[in-house]
Amino acid sequence: MKNTDAQNEKRIPIRKRVLLAVLVITLAILVVAVVTSMGAMNKMRQVGERRLSEELSSNLRHEVLNKASNTDAKLAAYRKYMEVIRDYTQNMYRDYDKLVASGKYFDTPRMETGEGVYAMTSAFAHDNVKIEDYMDEIYFFSHLEAILEPMAKDNEEQISTIYLGTTTGLLVSYDRWSTLSAVPKPDFLIYDYFQSEWYTKGMQEDDIFFTSLYVDAMGRGLTITIATPIRDQNGVFQGVLAADFDITGVYNEMISMDLGTGSFSFAFENDRSVISLDLQDKVLLENYIDIDESSLEKMTSGKTRIIETSDAFYACAPIETVDWTLCAKVPRTVLLEKVQTLDRSFVFAMLVFLLVSVVLVLVGLFFANKVSKSITHPIELLVNDMKDIAGGSLDHKAAVYRNDEIGDMTNNLNEMVERLKGTISDLVIAEAKAAEMHELASTDALTSVKSKSAFDSYIAELQSEIDRGDKPIFAIAVFDCDNLKVINDKYGHDKGDVYLITSSRLIGSIFKYSPVFRVGGDEFVAILHGEDYENRERLLKVFAKTQEEIKKTEGNPWKMVSVSVGVASYDYKNDSSVADTLRRADKLMYENKAQKKANVSTR
User: Fold this and answer.
1) What share of the chain is helix, strand, coil (3-state, %, to 5)?
2) SS3 of 524, please?
3) 518: helix, coil or strand?
4) Any residues with CB less than 8 A from the CB of 526 and at least 6 apart, and which?
């Protein structure tokens, strides 16, 4: 009885110590978890901020590049209009006499022509005009109306006037502006176009060109003139054809981008002057935005790029047709708004984590208290037995202290250990055999690179990533040993094997961060990742240069390796499978092989 009381007295402090230990361990784990979580969240915040920055830069670059491309396309369409009118006009000179005879007379429009009505008009570069001296030209150019009328009316929102200044002083035009119709008969409209930019520059150009921007005096908005020299069938210069395009809408659409609070877009010409609807006072780029000289040089380099400063992101893309550069500025506050949203998510997650942790601690203590009441010394002994077994003493036998559930657990433990010993022995043998078989199956016996079956498995994994919607970054390099048949036929297959081994080692030494597979008799494939992918262009040059050096220094033909190579990068937009990338790489390899043969034949 006394012994039982003593045991009961011992059980009470043990239970309390268990509860205290549970509490202390739980709190320690909670503290470690909180500290670790805060560190992890801080790291995640940094990664998130970096990725948000990369995403912002990528989206910004794409938006600006897209706007620049669209503007280039529209300006190119304007250029195409001028090509059509120029070719039509120059072809007219082949039938000059016939067209003069069949032409009709036109002169300065009258007031009754009305505002907005298109009409052929005539004007002159000087005031000592004798109309009879220009009759043939007027009759001749009247045939231009056949092409100018549909061209102007189809684009009346952009094209305001199309005109041709001849070397004789006659200015033929087709327009719809009432100011040109307000000259009363019989006066002539005089415009000394010989001094204008479009004419003087047209005398020096060989093809279509764009003039500087200006705001048209007749209220047409931001205007640019497209002009081209005109020559007759003998190549003799006859004048300059030009058209005024109101590009206010094009410009506004180009700089219209929704990039966030405080963001704005603008364009500047190659002289660094900022384009504006008000061109009275030109503003230089360095006075328009606050940016350092180094960033300014990058911005005006004429290349598509992202420029990061301490307070903003700038995206620039050239508009090559007119030598402009489109830029967009996004303040860093746009990025910070997203980062703050991320921070709020992290704080909320931490609060939820702490709340759940406190609840779990309380629940754990409650159940630990319940369980500890029924846990006695046999359990502790059983735990010690289990520790011995877990430490590797599989020959240890746990003693059965009670004939109850704990005793059943002890018996089951002993039986499990016996079965485990047999299972471990079988697993060790099976694992050794599996490792040996896998190594044999995945390694090429001759070259020691990975085998065709390993290649198929690797490609299947990549394809699985693509099928899941991932966008893996990799490139495929296909290699083919050029002269293997010659080596085999001339020196024997053992030398051919040396040729293959040497080739595989060369490939592995250059593309050392990528898996290399032998997929055929003389064909190898490398899947380029990481540094090899980033440096693939440089590595290809090193690969070619190394082969040349081997040929110069090696005396044995079977070691003078010559390997053709083709590299293609996976493009998730155009490649639906890894096989698409592989086919492009294979095609480039054969092109490389053909180029080598062509170089040899020309020597």
Assistant:
1) 55, 15, 25
2) strand
3) strand
4) 476, 477, 479, 507, 511, 514, 515, 516, 517, 532
Q: What is the mean pLDDT of each run of 10 residues along the chain (603 residues)?
A: 50 62 77 76 71 78 89 88 93 94 82 68 87 92 90 76 92 69 55 91 92 69 89 94 86 86 86 74 82 88 87 89 88 73 66 75 68 61 72 70 70 75 62 55 86 94 93 95 90 92 94 94 94 95 93 87 94 92 95 87 64
Sign of CA dihedral 573, 575, 578, 581: negative
The residues with which 86 forms a beta bridge, in sequence order, are: none
CA angle 321, 327, 329 (to 5 degrees): 170
pTM: 0.48
Rounded to whole angstroms, the Cα distance separating 595 from 591 reads 6
Would you state the torsion angle of the CA atoms of residues 63, 69, 73, 74, taken in this order, to the nearest 10 degrees? 50
Non-local (6+) Cβ contacts of 281 within 8 A are none
514 burial type by CB count under 10 A (0-12 exposed, 13-18 middle, 19+ buried):
buried
Distance, in Å, from the CA atom of 248 to the CA atom of 254, rounded to the nearest integer, reads 10
Give 12-19's long-range contacts (Cβ < 8 A, gap of 24+): 14/372, 15/369, 15/372, 15/373, 15/375, 18/368, 18/372, 18/375, 19/365, 19/368, 19/369, 19/372
| 79 contacts 321 by C-beta, under 8 angstroms | yes
Non-local CB neighbours of 229 within 8 Å, separated by 6+ positions: 202, 203, 205, 206, 237, 239, 240, 241
